[in-house]
Amino acid sequence: MSYVSPKIKAQFESMPINLKNAILERDVRLENMADLMACLERIIEEGEPNA
Questions:
Q1: CB of 16 closer than 8 Å to CB of 48
Q2: What superkingdom heads the lineage (predicted)?
Q3: What is the model's pTM?
């Protein structure tokens, strides 16, 4: 189950729903913006169809 820290919750919630879903499907733990950016970079590299 994915986790988004309250510290970055506002930034996470401001993203499009399909991108948030793609992130949450990855079962990641996002503690800070660096974690979020790394996850987004992996989605781009993999060519995630939902992003």
A1: no
A2: Bacteria
A3: 0.84
